[in-house]
Amino acid sequence: DIGFTAQMEKELDEIDEGRAAFVKRYFQRDVADPHLYDLTINVEHVSPQYVAEVIVGYCQRRFETPPRGGD
Question: How does pLDDT run across 3-24, given as a tens digit for each residue?
């Protein structure tokens, strides 16, 4: 239902705005500042499996965790 989808989008936008205001008020940071993030992934055209692989690979390199074996 289009009305339901529009309502959900509105509610999600309000939640996002509230979270951004919280971060701004208590941490004096802008959540839209890309310098605050170590990794960002545009998930619009990739699978959840691919996203998971990117995150695991990043964490392994970032925290020098040896790759797990294939068992």
Answer: 889 999 999 999 999 999 999 9
Length of the chain: 71
Average pLDDT value for the chain: 91
- Structure token pair of residue 57: 């690979």
Read out DSSP for 32-65? T-GGG-S-----TTS-HHHHHHHHHHHHHHHTTP
Listed as own residue / partner, the contacts of 12-17 with beta carbons closer than 8 Å and 24 or more positions apart are none
Nearest-angstrom CA–CA distance, 35 and 18: 21
Identity of the residue numbered 26? Y
Rounded distance between C-alpha atoms, residue 61 and residue 65, angstroms = 7
Q: What is the pTM of this model?
A: 0.62
